[in-house]
Write a structure and sequence with these properties.
alpha+beta, six-stranded antiparallel beta sheet, elongated
């Protein structure tokens, strides 16, 4: 009857544990003031944010097969991404550790020993003499340990571990987004230099022909040696730029090699001046960024984890209860180990409560509260930075589109000036310095156009990263996908 009453009592305590409430604040995502719309200078297409979907492959929208292949290589071989994946595995394992606290921990122990007990050991009773005894000791037992989560310490620990695992998953997604954006940026810088090098090499060919013409005219006595010297100086200066641009291109090539997990000495990318498409990038509304950017998701999950730690620290003010029943057998004779007289068992609850700690527990709660406030500030800072980056991308693309269109007009004007200068020089109306000046102006205009093209591609990558990666275009009756949809600036 006594054992039965004990079991009933333990069952009642267990029910109280299940009905117990967790101490500490329940997590509530803080509100962030978001504007109703962006301030683009031209219409942009809407999009449908879907946080559950992957953030890529956004780079495929540039329609560059070489870039697509490099991105796949980077996703498979980049070591920074491998580190983030390993940290996610750690976080999930830690979540499993926290989850195990919800269940009883069951163990088995066994003992087999032969020992001699001292005859001179301290007495337990003066009327009972001690004797030296040599005997066997065989024991086999089953023990259970279970923490009664009356005040939610285990529950809050589980909440924190779950939020940390989700944060690591968002960190992995953010690492993937940053990796692919960095790779695309280096690739577009490299392609921009390819175009610049092509412009410079074409200019060199033009300047060599001009030098031959000036030399021939000088040999015929039609011009002075000054024309030849000026053209030679221009050619030498342009040849120097080839080496400078080649050095810059090699650095971007080496950076791409590292991002793809390839040793730089065995990596190379063939030059190409094929045009690259500018994708039409939809914006949506500012609040969509909260759903699509993995760094914001990571910052929000960090808040949830920090909030759970407040509950864990607060639970330390309350007593902890442990159920520790055990059952086993113990005998000095192996043959009698499993006989009824060898059975031993125990049922009970242990409790512990801190009475005086000189403020240690209160300081622990204050520490976790301050940590939570820090994560709130970090979250709001991340949101503000995201809005800044999107606005920078919007205005940057609009400005670069206008600048690139103007650069095309400048190239056309410079070509007309060169044609006029050549004609006037051939007719003896103007000096050869006018031709050289026109050649240099055309070279500068073409290189500026190449640089603006590269900046436009980089800004597109920057804006896609700022918006959180790939997008899903909305299909509705008011705005069919194949007709009447306004395109993004430059799209």
């Amino acid at each position: 009857m006594s054992a039965r009453r004990t079991l009933i009592g333990l069952a009642c305590v267990s029910m109280l544990a299940l009905a117990g409430c967790a101490v500490g604040p329940d997590y509530q995502k803080p509100a962030v003031d978001m504007p109703a719309a962006w301030t683009p200078e031209a219409p942009w297409r809407p999009m449908q944010p879907q946080d559950a979907t992957a953030r890529g492959p956004w780079w495929e929208r540039f329609n560059d097969a070489q870039l697509n292949a490099l991105q796949q290589q980077a996703l498979a071989g980049n070591q920074t991404l491998a580190i983030a994946a390993a940290r996610l595995a750690q976080a999930r394992a830690q979540l499993n550790v926290a989850s195990a606290g919800q269940y009883p921990q069951v163990g088995i122990n066994a003992r087999a020993a032969r020992a001699r007990i001292s005859a001179n050991r301290p007495l337990t009773n003066y009327n009972s003499p001690n004797y030296a005894t040599v005997q066997n000791d065989f024991a086999l037992g089953l023990n259970v340990s279970y923490e009664l989560d009356l005040f939610g310490r285990v529950q809050r620990s589980l909440e924190g571990a779950g939020a940390s695992a989700q944060q690591s998953a968002a960190d992995l997604e953010n690492t993937r987004l940053l990796l692919t954006a960095e790779l695309a940026g280096n690739y577009f810088n490299l392609r921009e230099l390819d175009v610049e090098l092509d412009v410079v090499r074409r200019a060199i060919a033009l300047q060599r022909r001009a030098l031959e013409l000036a030399t021939s005219r000088h040999d015929l006595g039609a011009t002075s040696g000054l024309d030849v010297a000026q053209q030679q100086a221009l050619l030498d200066n342009t040849l120097t730029q080839v080496d400078v641009l080649g050095k810059q291109r090699a650095q971007y090539e080496h950076a791409i090699a590292t991002l793809t997990g390839t040793p730089a000495p065995v990596f190379s990318i063939a030059p190409s001046i094929a045009p690259i498409a500018f994708p039409a990038i939809p914006l949506g509304v500012p609040s969509d960024v909260l759903e699509r950017r993995p760094d914001i998701a990571s910052a929000e999950r960090a808040m949830a984890a920090a909030n759970a730690q407040i509950g864990v620290a607060s639970a330390a003010f309350y007593p902890s209860f442990m159920l520790q029943p055990s059952y086993g057998v113990d005998s000095r004779n192996w043959g009698a180990l499993f006989n009824a007289p060898s059975v031993l068992w125990s049922l009970g609850v242990s409790a512990s409560q801190s009475l005086f700690d000189a403020g240690r527990l209160r300081a622990g709660v204050d520490f976790t509260k301050a940590g939570y406030e820090a994560t709130v500030a970090a979250y709001k800072r991340t949101v503000l930075t995201a809005m800044q980056e999107v606005e920078d991308g919007i205005t940057g693309i609009a400005s670069l589109d206008r600048a690139y269109a103007q650069s095309q007009s400048a190239i056309a004007s410079a070509r007309r000036v060169l044609e006029i200068a050549d004609s006037r020089y051939d007719g003896g109306v103007s000096p050869y310095l006018d031709v050289i000046t026109a050649q240099q102006a055309l070279l500068n205009s073409e290189r500026q156009a190449a640089q603006l093209m590269g900046q436009r591609l980089l800004t597109s990558v920057f804006l896609i990263k700022a918006l959180g990666g790939d997008w899903h275009e909305r299909r509705d009756a008011q705005q069919p996908a194949d007709a009447g949809a306004p395109k993004a600036v430059g799209g």
